[in-house]
UniProtKB/TrEMBL annotation:
Gene3D superfamilies referenced in this protein's UniProt entry, alphabetically: Cytidine Deaminase, domain 2 (3.40.140.10)
Pfam family, one: RadC
Species name: Dyella ginsengisoli
Domain MPN: from-to ranges: 39-161
Keywords: Hydrolase, Metal-binding, Metalloprotease, Protease, Zinc
Name of the gene: radC
Superkingdom of source: Bacteria
Keyword Hydrolase found: yes
Protein name per its UniProtKB record: DNA repair protein RadC
């Protein structure tokens, strides 16, 4: 599979292209857009990127977008993989990952394979645990985004952080 961009900014797929190829290309384009902008200033762009990255998965995954002190992207890591209805998240491993990339801030994200992005009681609980754990090493959590099939829920917008 190949994807090309012409001078007018239009993308064209070449060769045999699967759905996974299209989603990977879209994720790559959105990530490049976020990186070009330099910092995270538009929550909509972050949600679009995470929806492309996580929205079509049939199992739960927990990702973190690590940011520096000016909210520039340092890394986007998949830290935990789960099953159809959950993923075990370990605060110790999250703190270790934050220190490894020298992060100052983070945006947490995970998907709900059911397609319903409503934060669960377990989502709220692990978010509180991670806020406290990361606070000890000087890392702020800016948001926890729950990704569904076609939409995302920001826990920060809901006042759940």
């Amino acid at each position: 599979m190949g994807i090309t961009k012409d001078r007018a900014g239009n993308y064209k797929l070449t060769g045999n292209t699967t759905e996974a190829d299209v989603l990977a290309a879209a994720e790559s384009i959105l990530k490049a857009k976020l990186e070009r902008e330099g910092d995270i200033s538009n929550p909509r762009d972050v949600s679009d990127f995470l929806r492309m990255r996580l929205g079509a998965l049939l199992h739960e995954e927990f990702h973190i977008l690590w940011l520096d002190n000016r909210h520039r992207i340092l890394s986007c890591q998949k830290l935990f993989t789960g099953t159809i209805d959950g993923a075990s998240v370990h605060p110790r491993e999250v703190v270790r990952a934050a220190l490894n990339v020298n992060a100052c801030a983070a945006i947490l994200a995970h998907n709900h394979p059911s397609g319903v992005p409503e934060p669960s009681a377990a989502d709220r609980s692990i978010t509180r645990e991670l806020v406290e754990a990361l606070k000890l090493v000087g890392v702020r959590i800016l948001d926890h985004i729950v990704v569904g099939a076609g939409s995302c829920v920001s826990m920060a917008e809901r006042g759940l952080l």
